[in-house]
Design a protein that fits this description.
The structure is a single chain. The chain has one domain (7-193). Helix 2 (21-40) packs across helix 9 (169-193). It has nine helices and no strands. The protein has helices at residues 7-17, 21-40, 47-56, 72-77, 83-91, 105-126, 137-145, 155-165, 169-193.
């Protein structure tokens, strides 16, 4: 994988175009989730690349929702992101808002996990613990089947993401819960300091 911007520059860019705490937290969550997946899937040496793509995947969404993944290349160029990095960021919008197809395993993970982190986060906020630390796949599957719950999280995208990876839906759910557990405390601490 090619070089990516350092985290300080990436976070500064995210904050430049995103003022809503929800969007910052989502970026941090997908960053931590992608870092975990890089290690889990044998791409540990590329963990910074995976994580930074996760951090910046929605950089354009708050200000330009109608141009999501189309405005991103221009913004990412501000901090010198490589073509490979820009392709990876844009690929999570494939079939939804752009025609950049996820081809690398990392892009497929981002496509699959992005929507699912939203669903898991919403489910965690409903728990007495307000945490993913005690979440089980079985309770997440119930929330997944309830179309009214976190209706903005596309079940079709999550299913397609699992298929692109060649995983079962349960595998994707289990791994993504573990990924979110790995970074939950550090994200809470970072959000408190912002």
């Amino acid at each position: 994988m090619k070089a990516c911007p350092d985290r300080e520059a990436a976070l500064a860019l995210l904050r430049k175009y995103n003022g809503e705490p929800f969007h910052i937290q989502h970026g941090l969550t997908v960053e931590g989730t992608m870092r975990w997946y890089a290690g889990e899937l044998g791409y540990g040496e590329d963990a910074d690349f995976w994580a930074t793509v996760g951090l910046l995947h929605d950089v354009d969404f708050e200000k330009w929702p109608e141009e999501h993944c189309k405005k991103a290349p221009e913004l990412l160029a501000e901090i010198g992101c490589s073509d490979e990095f820009i392709h990876a960021v844009c690929s999570h919008g494939y079939g939804l808002c752009c025609d950049v197809e996820p081809t690398h395993e990392m892009e497929k993970v981002l496509f699959a996990a992005d929507e699912l982190t939203g669903l898991i986060g919403a489910a965690a906020r409903m728990r007495p613990s307000k945490s993913v630390s005690d979440m089980e796949v079985s309770s997440l599957k119930k929330k997944f089947k309830d179309k009214k719950f976190a209706a903005g999280c596309s079940r079709d995208v999550i299913k397609e993401g699992a298929e692109r990876l060649g995983w079962t839906l349960e595998d994707l759910m289990e791994k993504t819960i573990l990924a979110m557990r790995s970074c939950e405390e550090s994200i809470n601490a970072e959000m408190a300091s912002l």
